[in-house]
Predict the structure.
Amino acid sequence: AFISFMEDSGYMARAAFIMDKVMQKIGLHGKSFIPLVMGFGCNVPAIMATRTIESRSSRMITMLINPLMSCSARLPIYILFVGAFFPKYASTALFAIYLFGILLAVILSKLFRKTLFKEETTPFVMELPPYRMPTVRSTFTNMWDKSRQYLQKMGGIILIASIVIWFLGYFPHSTEIEDHFDAQLEQLDQQYAQGEVDEIEKETLTAGIETLRASTHQENSYIGKIGHFVEPVMRPLGFDWKISVSLITGMAAKEIVISTLAVLYPGDTDTQESLQARLKTETHSDGTLIFTPSVVVALLLFVLIYFPC
């Protein structure tokens, strides 16, 4: 809505014109500024917006560095880990992640300009439209057109990826594992009927059994096997198979990283604080902590740099 308002008012072209000198220093057009700013919201429409850049080289560089702008889907991951492991410096750490992404984008932009895209195919020419007050009708029409294009072009891809990840995480079903946990629930029901446990204890134990069932199922699912397969590659970063799986599922949508961690590291997942506490106390088989400060920093930087949704 805000971008549509700025476009119709005539300010968008002036913002690109004003930023041209700054963008030229890193080898881009002034028109690259708007898609890069949009990247902090979502990389998908931001990359789609690069089609307004006439120069192929500037357009390609803008698309390649756009994913380094931390989109809103990455923000919940940042908040979860920064709040849990750097509570005293949470705001500083969060700002540092965003700043690092911008600096990395500047460095790569200059590198791409000197290596892959040396020549500027078209000069920067832009018509400055007169200022005008946008109408509600034109703003909403513009919003609807862009939203429809986004859903049509990307909705299908994201939907297919989500279905594939769900399939890999849901199958195969092991009857032996299911029977084992069903037997535990039946035993708990008998203990409750005999008065050995009260209702609160029953609810707590039932939740624990169901969480352990989900975790065991994930480990034995196709995606769990993929996680174990890629774990040797991720191990130098300090990532175990569970973190590796969450990063794989995060390729479809970054928010899935958190929900995957919540399932794979069993505990009370009703609140974010309980997940934070669980991650802080999770250990390897030898008793060492999984999430050390260095591992958390590596994970945050990995989420910043790796595949966009």
Residues 136-170 form the longest helix (35 residues). The mean pLDDT is 86. The radius of gyration is 24 Å. Residues 283 and 289 are 4 Å apart (CA to CA).
